[in-house]
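Support request, please re-run this one:
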Amino acid sequence: MRIMGLDFGAKTVGVAISDPLFITAQGIEIIRRKEENKLRRTLARIEELIEEYQVEEIVLGLPKNMNDTLGPRAELTLEFKDKLEHRTGLLVHMWDERLTTVAADKVMMEAGVRRENRKEYVDQIAAVFILQGFLDLRSRKQGED
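Re-run finished. Output below.
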């Protein structure tokens, strides 16, 4: 069993998967779509990945504004959460994703990835940061119990 992390964007969804022990997150792919509102294929691909990796929970990044409010992108993400839960039957945790894209971009810059190539991977790396943050919190909470 594993946990899936998702970074839901306007035309892409970055996907990360935990290892079976829930210690680390690995990016596995970016799901792309031509139109923002066309989610049928995106949801179908997520379902395939859930089955392939035996996913039992999902962590979805919530793009809050810096002042902790929810804007239009966050509202669309919450609608996507409802669709995910309905379609997969899995629990979907929301995770504050503020600055994950900035952190992903910084990591790629430090790794020497050219600017024009960073856009290709930023959503997948952001999904890794979202999932890893969730896994780290989960581990700390289990350590306290």
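The chain has a mean pLDDT of 88. The chain has one domain: 2-68+80-144.
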